[in-house]
Amino acid sequence: MRRFAKWMVLAALVLAPGIAVPGQEGEAAPSETEPAEELPTKRIKMYAENWRWVPDVIRVAEGTRLVIDFVSRDASHSFVLKDYQIKVPLPERSEKRFEFVADRKGEFKWRCGRPCGNGCPKMVGKLIVE
Ligand SMILES: [Cu+2]
Asked: What's the total number of domains in the chain?
């Protein structure tokens, strides 16, 4: 008889309106509905050839994730963007993907950081973050 009484109490808790069920349905979901933070992304294919970067100017909005596919069509080069502490070696006739977030406003020059011939000092470009 005591066992039966226990079951009656349990049944009352489960069945009683307002005790067990309401409130739980709405609380389980929020973590799934929060949007994941997704940065705007800009993809660029950049060539290094004949002592030039093509393109040699990149303009993006602050907070943009830049994905750059470097292509060297001749010698070994190195993409150096000092203000962002970025240095990407680019071996002769190779491709390399590199990405970073342009999180500081301003104009930043990049250059080639590997002696690649007479025109190396001319291998410069500019990142403009607005
Ligand atoms: Cu160079």
From this structure: 1
